[in-house]
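Co-fold these.
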Amino acid sequence: MLDVPIYGRIATLELFRPHGETQDLLFIATERYKFCVLQWDADANEVITRAMGDVSDRIGRPTDNGQIGIIDPDCRLIGLHLYDGLFKVIPFDNKGQLKEAFNIRLEELQVLDIKFLYGCPKPTIVVLYQDNKDARHVKTYEVSLKDKDFVEGPWSQNNLDNGADLLIPVPPPFCGVLIIGEETIVYCSASAFKAIPIRPSITRAYGRVDADGSRYLLGDHSGLLHLLVIAHEKEKVTGLKIELLGETSIASTISYLDNAFVYVGSSYGDSQLIKLNLQPDAKGSYVEVLERYVNLGPIVDFCVVDLERQGQGQVVTCSGAYKDGSLRIVRNGIGINEQASVELQGIKGMWSLRSATDDLYDTFLVVSFISETRILAMNLEDELEETEIEGFCSQVQTLFCHDAVHNQLVQVTSSSVRLVSSTSRELRHEWHAPADYSINVATANATQVLLATRGGHLVYLEIGDGILIEKKHAQLKYDISCLDINPIGENPNFSNLAAVGMWTDISVRIFSLPDLNLITEEHLGGEIIPRSVLLCAFEGIPYLLCALGDGHLLNFLLNTTTGELTDRKKVSLGTQPITLRTFSSKNTTHVFAASDRPTVIYSSNKKLLYSNVNLKEVSHMCPFNSAAFPDSLAIAKEGELTIGTIDDIQKLHIRSIPLGEHARRICHQEQSRTFAICSLKYNQSSTEDSEMHFIRLLDDQTFEFISTYSLDQFEYGCSILSCSFSDDSNAYYCVGTAYVMPEENEPTKGRILVFMVEDGKLQLVAEKETKGAVYSLNAFNGKLLAAINQKIQLYKWMLRDDGTRELQSECGHHGHILALYVQTRGDFIVVGDLMKSISLLIYKHEEGAIEERARDYNANWMSAVEILDDDIYLGAENNFNLFTVRKNSEGATDEERGRLEVVGEYHLGEFVNRFRHGSLVMRLPDSDVGQIPTIIFGTVNGVIGVIASLPQDQYVFMEKLQTNLRKVIKGVGGLSHEQWRSFYSEKKTVDSRNFLDGDLIESFLDLGRSRMEEISKTMNVSVEELMKRVEELTRLH
Amino acid sequence: MWKEIGDRESGKLRPNSFITRIRSNRVSSLQLSNHKEIVSPHRGAINSLQVDLTEGRYLLSGASDASLAVYDIQRATDYDGGGLIAKHKPILLVDKQHQNGHKFAISTAIWYPIDTGLFVTGSYDHHVNVWDTNTTQVVMDFKMPGKVYRTAMSSLATSHMLIATATEDVQVRLCDMASGAFSHTLSGHRDGIMAVEWSTSSEWVLVTGGCDGAIRLWDIRRAGCFSVLDQSHSQLGRRPPLLERSTTKVSTSKCSLPGQTSSAKARAPQRKGSSGSGSKHSGSSRILRHAKGSAKQRLHPGLLSSQDRATAHYGAVIGLKATEDGMYLLSAGSDSRLRLWDIQSGCNTLVHFEIVRLQSSKAIQLAVTQDSALVFVPCMTSVKAFDVWTGKASMTLHGHYEHVNCCWYGAHDQELYTGGNDRQILIWSPPKLISEDVDEGDRRTGQPLAVDQDNWSD
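Predicted complex below.
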């Protein structure tokens, strides 16, 4: 799988194949009116841009119903409907190249859908539109390329279903078009008109099953999948049939792949790969879900919590909509699920051993200490119990252990190498190191042993049946710090290469085996000695990994025949020495780097990736795949030995809690260890669609509903907050609601409900009626600050004479259109308005009043706000932009002080619903990045992102790097990164400023060495330094 | 609105549809503002109103007593009615006493489109003045040959700073702010010019309307006007013929397919909502138009004399407004008609606006909403809002005691500002729910909420 960034929001995506082409081309148009034609180059494994351009116009108003991009089935032209009243045509010439575009006037103003018809001598479109009286019609137009105009088409059809929203062009031999309405489906062509009634539903997506267009899959708004069949006699359409197949996620796209496999893409739930069975299952469904692809969108709200109390944040999102609503717990890094642990101090090394060479499971766990070696094994009760292997020497520290061929085990101590039978557990053979040459380091595989003694002696042994044979001996100049002979060639038991790390000259050397000839020597530079080397292969590519004593890791591509090392890369994993070990998970080999910041090294798309493990310091690790604990790892932490399984090897871990209803707001309460959500359940079973709204309480470990409070009819939960009040130590959940009456434009009534959690139950302790929807609630100076329609209102928590509590309004502030998003800091209140950007209010204690301090006078329609620090506030707005404003308290005039100055602007290309302070990574207090504040955001598309406030000097440096990267990394389709990130709204487009694109900057690490050097040269900074600083950035998420 | 916000949040409603929907909801509920007032200092009829195009913050008004004023409409100067009614007093006022003040009525006052540092006024005293906002001094002065009725600057212009002026004179003059001199004199109208408007799609195209009933379109890079709108030319549906397309070929191909032409007409009225009304003169006028088109090619500059005589209104053209999408033009005439023109084809779309009467003596200032859905027209003492595509009156705003002269739609807040002969500037806004605030803690200022504006609304 290749994934390439597109610098734009993709508005249309169409595959087509011009005449004479052997493969399909991809047409992409972005919402900012750029288009490109892409081709896949299978040899180079990359995307080639065939054509690109701009299709924006000065004239016309952008369409409300989204952009339409279609391609004539005979590849004569591309049609675009981008502006009301205009149809843009990009013709193809004979060679399949694009010619100059032109506009044709389209009289229909409210266009719902446009498609090209099949089998027409001239390119012909069919237009579904709505007239002034809200009636819907279709009509056809031929596109005359010569006259650059429309000619009246072959047919039209008036007064369709009022919910008709989708056109499906039918390919030859039938041709014509299917018009999908909410209550009827119509087949229409010049010669035929067939209609069938359907159960009321809104069809959102379709997929064609057969090339002849006789069957279609239709997905509706409630996730039901139907099969629509065009009944025909030869080439004459005789009727339509529709059949329910089953339920899927609510589909936004349906692609019939082949052989009854269908991909259902969903923007409200997980996307799915399904199989359509010939026979229905017990529930009458023909649909079998084979695979699910995680989709977090739409993230309407989320909170950042530290459930495991490890100092690492997790994000819990309200994801999905309708029936596919769920909570998702998103965690960074790889978790270890602890199965067992024992207290053991001073572990110096660990190895697992099998009781027979062909055993599936490990039996023994050898744990080495400074002056003894203990052997643990699983007993019959599946408990780890100390045992003995008679042939092993247990009074000294073990340097290395390994399973060997012929049911043997190898133990290396500082004085000897012992070969022990794994069945009889008796010593079979022993090789003694010469008297004055104690063994320092050793390594082994199933047939080989390599050890290094004092004085730089390297000894190579081979393992026979009951015998150790000293094959070769070499004298090196310096002492040896580490060794590895992990087999990466074809033979899994024998390695042709040995990697050796050296003291003094700080180098790694590659020796050939068995002749022990030096074939490569690579000096590492610096003064830190290599502490662990490892030969390993990821996705078939051999690497040499070399870990240094200061927590850095070098990796090289290794040529297994010549021993040559290329493509050196250095990353910093921690600050302490690293020990490298391989392990397998899901039949793939990964590397565990044990250090103060344990990391798993794995490979994806032939690129090495590093994912931190959610553990603090780990000194040693070895895989321990026992019958009782399959696929487990033994991990030596400070004073403890843990056995646990490891998560899937990937960066982000997402756990899904399906709710079956749509969660809209979430918050966590530390004291009661619960989450509370506002949710709504759609009731589609009854004849009329109804909604039920709830406040639900969930346990923060099990995520089970433990208590529910039903809201009144028409009452919606709009906001939720966990807080406590001054003079009251209890923690409360406050919920703001709105009564949404069908006849009212804007809610005029709502409530603030105050709950306490008692015995796991929600207890209503106070309620307060409000004059509108409570869009936001904030804890504010031990009081409650609510945003109610256009007003900001402050409530005190008062003790009544009878000992009960109530909310009493203290003061308020008008002057907003709708105060949708509110954040507070100290006495300051930052308000994000429906359409009037950000304003800053201040609460004056003496007067007990809230006053406006400053405002941004731009007309931004807000979607989220957050306070970055005392002076800078962050906002997200309706056109997918981010911006920051600064309080100008030093301004000379009232006018200046009363104005929030826009300081940063950026086009994110995502609709942000929520910002929250927090971080997904564990912060190491001693590192620089630990001091950088971060904000997490969640978007409609399910994106979770991080915004970090960089110090000025780092920003300047990274901005320079970004500028240089823009020159080196060209966007796919010729799309410009600079243009893409420019702040873009109805009124203006300005270059981004004071924002950087972290994804672009981090892509520096994926560049080849030569391009890195090119950038390093222009920046006048060494490649190593650049990599180090970019890697520091990657630590932020 | 909570529902729309919820739908936007979960991706069911596109952000731009969200804006459109909220805006049109708000516009449809316009009423005399219950929370915002402008304190008018003028002692004569208000003739011109404009909010600046950069921030949407400063309202500029010009009045018949030769006074002009600027108000900050985003920040109130003080509050009334218990802090609930924001009063906006002028933050800048120039009247006859001012050393550079106009002698007679100010008929037009417009902002420099790029920033609020400059504004331009035109007066019956034959002068067009350019003012520095910060110093309130005239920095440039153009002497016109007669009373100035209207001025206009292009909000799109990046390469010129021209003030187009409509005066009593038959010529349109373009005053160049860069040089301080007239850069163009456009001749064609046969009578004084009441209305002038720049195109919203090209910085070079100017539209003018005269007392001769003609609306002329000019490309200021070329000599002469390139189009005169003809009210009887109403065959919308076909685009202007192409250069390489020969007249004969087109006419034959079209005539040979009568079915096609008639169907082409059938879709023209689709937008107008009155189908089949224009089917009396079909094929012949089509050919005529093509002939005209080719003639235009030959004769430009200076059109065919018959075309040159075309009129847009029976009577003077007293107001012009281009829609923001650059595709349509609205014109008001002293014949009490409002017409919607398709700019590209120059066709009268024949939308029938249900207007009873327009004042005929004075130029009026129309306003259109951002999405071109509604047009606001001063109709005697009221302001009416019409649906642009059907012509139906959707709102009638009563508030002024005397004739209304001008209106300006503030797209930022979906507010309408109107000025009339009664010397008042009224704000029409979506209502705010301020029935509340009888809350316990909030009784500090007392609540005599005597909504005295109610006086205005009947």
